[in-house]
Amino acid sequence: MQEQLARLEGAPYGRYKGLVGTWELPGAGTTGETFQLVRGQADPFAPPARAAVRVPAERAGFPPELWSTPVRRRALAGFLARRAAEVAGGERSLRIDGGGQEVLERGSCQVSADDGGVTLRFGLALPGRGRRIDARAAERLMCRSVPEIASRALRYASLDAGALRRFVETVEDSVALRDALPGLGLVAFVADGSVLPRGSGVDDRPATGEGVVPFSSPEGLRTTVELPNAGAVSGMGLREGVSLIVGGGFHGKSTLLRALETGIWDHVPGDGRELAVSRPETVKLRAEDGRRVERVDVHAFVGHLPDGSDTTDFSTGNASGSTSQAASLCEAVEAGARVLLIDEDTAATNLMIRDARMQSLVAKEREPLTPLVDSVRSLHRDHGVSTVLVMGGSGDYLEVADRVLMMDAYRPSDVTERAREVASVPAGRHAEAESFPPVVHRVPDPSSLESESRGRTRIRSRGEDALTFGEHEVDLRSVEQIADSRQVAGIGLALELMVRRGYVDGTRTLAEALDLLDADLEDAGAEALLAVRDEDFAVPRRFETAAALNRVRGLRVTRAGSRTPASTGSTARTASTGGTGSTG
Ligand code: ADP
Ligand code: MG
């Protein structure tokens, strides 16, 4: 490759394409390490070229116990990608996606299930002077920086073995804990000593300093779980049903709920949330006025609208706060959610509550909305869907909650008994609904997702906020459990996979199409999405993929029948993407 490069000095930039192919990694001698230029770069301002480095098993040298299960491989790959990004450090032409606080299955690094060999994939901004090839800089990059990363980041011998083992064991324990939840009848577990608050609103690392109060479980909810590596851990087990988190403003309610939101993912050692986990089918809901809704049955929450539209088959290009939240709830259950999280801070009040006085002032005939408080019990009883609510401003939920947690100066206590007493004094309101109706399944029309321009669908992410999918701009600002911006790219690739493989075919329901997607991701992991395109991405959950699809403005659907329970008996893939212990 060195010679080839030397010959390209000063040549037109486009001739970099001639290097596309697989080369022996410079300086690797007989070790079998390779460098692959996967895709060239059209010009110096185009998106960077894609490259891959492969380190064969003998050279990588990882002991089998570090890669013997899908979970361990994901953890090992996560560690290596982080390390590689660290080693690349100041080299701005190398774009290595190391990931953040969550340990996700990523496009950037894979460990072979067969022998523990390692592949690292990254972006490579090919050096140019104007529109000419800068071969000297390219040589430094490809023949020096890249080999250095391979030897310093992708080989067992050059890594901190203790840190690596801790990383893998931490992830394995998180997965084991999450897998244990259904058997224990829990929706979430937060270990004593967990650190939940973050550095700041824009810093996902743990808060530090004197003021940080580590989590301590209330007596009545303390449970002990045996983990493969950490042994017995004690913490708060939150049971299935309706749970309420109350307490004064600024006492840590939202912070606890956010820990449950992100508890679907595994976290790196030192994060503070390693043992704060929730069920993989946990979905955070919020109001999102302005969003589009396509043919969702929202009549559980919204009756006779002033414009006379049919709320059992409701579409709008501009939902209100309450209708958007109602639609998001029904869509989540349609996609297979088993636990719903709602925070008063971001919820539509009129969808959550309607107290006695308002009931007497505004007759039911005039109020299209039925508040969640009247169907939340049925959601659990009839559909097996639990709810965790943060609600400091209204006591209406005390009556319907199975348990009530109070946050007081960041410390939770179990106030269920007292809440029962308070609730035994009638509030004077009457129930407005008897049950939560069966969820209507919808069949997405593939032509509404396909790209008009033939060839590859454009997939671009803008931070965690937006996805460009073909001609569609999908607003994801209110989809709060997206782990990082690369996962937005992963969502785009997952949508493309569902269309290309014909999972969305105009006859399958959305839930069925998502089941097929999950099966692919279960089998092939990140490779399934890499087959769509070599790109930096993190594997998404079905719920975020569904959320994006539901927000495509051109989406068209037909309606299948309704079924109870909502999911077609499908098993939502574990969020940890490890492939173990899916729970239905
Ligand atoms: P609430 O929802 O009850 O109003 P928040 O969860 O928003 O309260 O928390 C208020 C503030 O307290 C935030 O700045 C948060 O980072 C901080 N905080 C939350 N939990 C803790 C804790 N355990 N230790 C220290 N600070 C915390
Ligand atoms: Mg709050």
From TrEMBL:
Q: Which organism is it from?
A: Streptomyces abyssalis
| Annotated region (Disordered), positions in chain | 428-456, 559-584
The record places domain MRB1590-like C-terminal at: 459-557
* Name under which the protein is recorded: ATPase
Q: Extract the SUPFAM superfamilies matched here.
A: P-loop containing nucleoside triphosphate hydrolases
Give every ATPase of the ABC class C-terminal domain span: 162-433
Annotated ATPase of the ABC class N-terminal domain residues: 3-156
- Biased-composition ranges for Low complexity? 560-577
